[in-house]
């Protein structure tokens, strides 16, 4: 089940931080923390890999709210979309482990925002994801150009070319055949 209670807490806390002036620039790193609960654990007594991806949603929610994007999403009837992702798992997360998720924007092109997210288990990196994300018009479903989004949040001059490893992932993903059947 989706962690709606954690989502609500994340939205409330992030909004409060933003109202207190603890905002983030798009080049800053968002950080949220929580404790792994029984609802996160699978039959191997560790955090389920799908749950890790779901919890990364919360990190992106905090990042969006604290950069001011959250308000623009509501005002412009925009939404967020994940168009691609890759993840590596390195360390197990067990019941009651203290987890921190760090979220940062690592590249921008004309259509997509590339986000790197890392989950830390008691201070040690346990998993890392790279995501291709976008902002969409909720009425049409079309992707909003990144320049339009950046201008809306007051950072229209921001350029962020991809590091080599991100560029390699982007190039490799373009080679992938998506099934048409």
First-residue to last-residue Cα separation: 29 Å
Helix count?
Answer: 5
Identify the CATH architecture: Roll
CATH superfamily: Hotdog Thioesterase
CATH topology title: Thiol Ester Dehydrase, Chain A
Protein name: Acyl-CoA thioesterase FadM
InterPro entries: HotDog_dom_sf (IPR029069), THEM6_lcsJ_thioesterase (IPR051490)
Organism: Moraxella cuniculi DSM 21768
Summarize the structure.
It holds the Pfam family 4HBT_2. This protein has 181 residues and is an alpha+beta fold.
Mind explaining what this structure looks like?
- By secondary structure, this protein is an alpha+beta fold.
- The protein has helices at residues 4-19, 49-66, 69-76, 146-152, 164-175, and strands spanning 29-35, 78-89, 98-108, 113-121, 124-137.
- The radius of gyration is 17 Å and the shape is globular.
- The two termini are 29 Å apart.
- The mean pLDDT is 96.
Structure keywords:
5-stranded antiparallel β-sheet; alpha+beta; 181 residues; Thiol Ester Dehydrase, Chain A; globular; Acyl-CoA thioesterase FadM; single chain; THEM6_lcsJ_thioesterase; HotDog_dom_sf
């Amino acid at each position: 089940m989706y962690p709606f209670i954690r989502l609500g807490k994340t939205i409330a806390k992030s909004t409060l931080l933003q109202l207190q002036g603890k905002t983030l620039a798009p080049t800053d790193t968002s950080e949220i923390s929580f404790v792994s609960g029984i609802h996160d654990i699978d039959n191997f007594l560790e955090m389920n890999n799908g749950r890790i991806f779901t919890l990364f949603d919360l990190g992106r929610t905090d990042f969006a709210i604290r950069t001011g994007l959250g308000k623009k999403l509501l005002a412009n009837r925009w939404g967020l979309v994940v168009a691609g992702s890759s993840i590596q798992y390195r360390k197990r997360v067990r019941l009651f482990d203290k987890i921190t998720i760090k979220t940062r924007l690592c590249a921008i092109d004309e259509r997509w925002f590339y986000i790197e997210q890392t989950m830390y288990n008691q201070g040690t990196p346990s998993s890392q994801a790279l995501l291709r994300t976008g902002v969409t018009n909720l009425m049409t479903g079309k992707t909003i150009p990144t320049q339009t989004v950046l201008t809306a949040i007051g950072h229209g001059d921001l350029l962020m070319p991809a590091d080599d490893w991100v560029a390699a992932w982007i190039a490799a993903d373009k080679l992938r055949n998506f099934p048409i059947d």
